[in-house]
Amino acid sequence: MKKSILQTGIQYGIRVSIALITYFIIMSIFNLSQNISFRFLNILIIMSGIYYAIKNYQKMHVKNEGDYLEGIGVGLSTVFFSTIIFSIFMFSYMKYLNPDFVQLIQENSFGEIMNIYIISFSIFIEGLGFGSVGTFITMQWLKTSHSNEVHTV
């Protein structure tokens, strides 16, 4: 059964968010969640999710190279749903599970201007930014070159 761009984005967005949440929980268990340098792996998780979402969509629609705009749509919808879910998780984590985490962020960043809402929104915007760039990078990598085609008038 062929899935739409939105269905594929939701499916892989959920998978990516589960991976991000799992990674965050593991980092929290080892008291490494406040270490900013480990956030680099979030980007790798998101990029992997984008790649597999687009490849799955192309495979389901029997397109070896895929339509560029469809791939962009799959990637962006994957990023949107994964960052929404992860931002909601982080909001819940900071509000109910570990309110001291907000204070830790305040001490290591912009101070008291950072509250639970700004932090959650920042996570969402950061995820969208990295994911959008990641989608375009992935599609550039996956598209095939058409420079060898002969164009006749």
Q: What does this protein look like?
A:
This protein has 153 residues and is an all-alpha fold. It contains five helices and no strands. It has helices spanning 5-29, 40-60, 68-97, 100-108, 116-142. α1 (5-29) packs parallel to α3, α2 crosses α3 and α2 crosses α5. It is elongated.
Features:
single chain, 153 residues, mainly alpha, elongated
Order of helices and strands: HHHHH
What is the beta-strand fraction?
Answer: under 5%
* Spans of at least 5 consecutive residues with low confidence: none
What is Rg? 18 Å
**Helix proportion of residues, in percent?**
over 70%
* Mean pLDDT value: 88
Largest β-sheet summary = none
**N- to C-terminal distance:** 39 Å
Principal-axis shape equals elongated
What's a quick, concise take on this entry?
The protein is mainly alpha-helical and 153 residues long.
Question: In terms of topology, how is this protein built?
Answer:
Elements: H1 5-29, H2 40-60, H3 68-97, H4 100-108, H5 116-142
